[in-house]
Specification:
By secondary structure, this protein is an alpha/beta fold. Helix content is 34%, strand content 16%. The protein folds into two domains: 183 residues, Aspartate Aminotransferase, domain 1 (Alpha-Beta Complex), CATH 3.90.1150.10; 241 residues, Type I PLP-dependent aspartate aminotransferase-like (Major domain) (Aspartate Aminotransferase, domain 2, 3-Layer(aba) Sandwich). The two termini are 21 Å apart.
């Protein structure tokens, strides 16, 4: 079914994902989407990390239907509501208290970039300094303050205005084996380095849009220590790789650090718009109404988020994420080893993984072929050279195996048409030897 004329005629050229996934979607459940013609697609895209708990999670759907049937508050600005209260109480009980995180919570406008804007504004206000340090390949959003922190030049234009008061330094691994945390430390200690004392350092522990660049725990600890030594606030942008994506609710937990400010959005609302800033109590220097937003009180998102927090009462989901992550890593490494040099590296943590290609054009062709085969994946990285996998955390083992087999088949098809490699075998995943893959995956559905 072609894309409707109303979309091509009326929607701005800015539309992007409809170009990558040219179908008219009608319904979705779990890890699957169905288009208007009845074709099914396995989703390894998950709304760019928004649908960690799958499409139309039954816990969420049932709670929302019940809430609406009782005429529950939908829009409330920052007024007190039962839905907000129940969410905050569950957040404290299930997430914050067990991790000994004494954070206050700010509800910002509905998107992740709103959280970033609020976080850097708060940091500057709290420290009475204007400079922010971000990192190479960072992605923090597209509104002007967050955009100044985002590294990819594709999103920048001189006409947008100044990017002053931001310095980008090399992320972990950007300069090979050189410890880039030492560079930050040296520049802060050297009064002639040209780097002003910043109010904050902002980072992603795993750079998703930047190409699945994974910071080591040692590097994160060094950055946190440097920030503390120089009275700089550490902001962790956990918008895409938080909410369990790396195996723990917050991605920074295994490093043993406690950021001063944390940005969270995407999957926290289960598909409904919701964005939060967590802050140390002494950082909460806001005056009432000093930073506002009409949709900072999405009560439907409160209801959804309250239900999804239940996944974290025990470690069952965390264990599944680690098991699935091992399956994905093993499969991608096998594909990498059999790609005849078409791929360069495999990177990831938990259930966010990337397969880097030598030629970015081939990465794009693999994603296009995968969609034709019934799998949704996207590219990331400065040159779109990385095929990024973000399957729902709740995906079944069979669906995960199927998606990996489709990816292997798609890679095989593209490489055959590009360099005509020898017979390609899809790797064994989770004990299921898929052997020589023919290109037909209907038998797995």
């Amino acid at each position: 079914m072609p894309i409707p004329n109303a979309i091509n005629r009326l929607e701005s050229n800015i539309r992007g994902y409809v170009r990558s996934f040219p179908a008219v979607f009608k319904s979705a459940k779990g890890a699957w989407l169905t288009d208007a013609l009845g074709n099914r697609y396995l989703d390894f895209f998950a709304g760019a990390g928004t649908l960690n708990y799958g499409h139309n999670n039954p816990r969420v759907s049932e709670a929302l239907i019940s809430y609406l049937a009782q005429d529950g508050i939908v829009h409330g600005l920052d007024t007190a509501t039962v839905a907000k209260t129940e969410f905050l109480e569950a957040l404290e009980e299930i997430i914050l208290a067990p991790r000994k995180l004494d954070y206050k919570v700010q509800f910002t406008g509905p998107t992740g970039t709103n959280a970033v804007e609020a976080a850097i504004k708060l940091a500057r206000k709290s420290k009475q300094r204007s400079h922010i340090v971000a990192f190479t390949n960072a992605y923090h959003g597209h509104s002007l303050g967050a955009l100044a922190l985002t590294g990819n030049q594709y999103y920048h234009d001189l006409s947008y205005g100044s990017h002053s008061n931001v310095t980008h330094l090399p992320f972990d691994g950007y300069l090979g084996d050189l410890d880039t945390a030492q560079l930050l430390s040296k520049m802060l200690e050297d009064g002639s380095s040209g780097l002003p004392l910043p109010a904050a350092v902002i980072l992603e522990t795993v750079q998703g849009e930047g190409g699945i660049n994974v910071a080591s725990f040692d590097w994160l600890r060094r950055i946190a220590s440097i920030c503390k030594a120089h009275d700089i606030l550490l902001i962790v942008d956990d918008i895409q790789v938080g909410n369990g994506r790396t195996g723990t609710f917050f991605s920074f937990e295994p490093a043993g650090i406690q950021p001063d400010i944390v940005c969270l959005s995407k999957a926290i609302g289960g598909g409904l718009p919701m964005s939060l800033v967590f802050m140390r109590r002494d950082c909460d220097t806001w005056k009432p109404g000093q930073h506002t937003g009409t949709f900072r009180g999405n009560n439907l998102a409160f209801v959804a988020a309250r239900q999804l927090l239940e996944y974290w009462r025990d470690d069952q989901l965390a264990q599944q994420i680690q098991a699935h992550g091992t399956t994905i890593e093993s499969s991608l490494k096998d594909l990498h080893g059999r790609s005849n040099g078409a791929t360069k590296a495999v990177r990831g943590r938990g259930m966010v993984w990337g397969l880097e290609f030598t030629d970015p054009e081939v990465a794009g062709r693999v994603c296009k072929q995968a969609f034709s085969n019934g799998l949704m994946v996207e590219t990331s990285g400065a040159k779109d050279q990385v095929v990024k996998l973000l399957p729902p955390l709740t995906i079944s083992q069979n669906d995960l195996n199927l998606g990996l087999s489709i990816l292997g088949d798609s890679l095989h098809t593209v490489l055959q048409s590009t360099i005509a490699p020898p017979v390609f075998y899809v790797p064994s995943v989770a004990g299921l030897d898929l052997g020589r893959h023919s290109g037909s995956f209907a038998s797995f559905l």
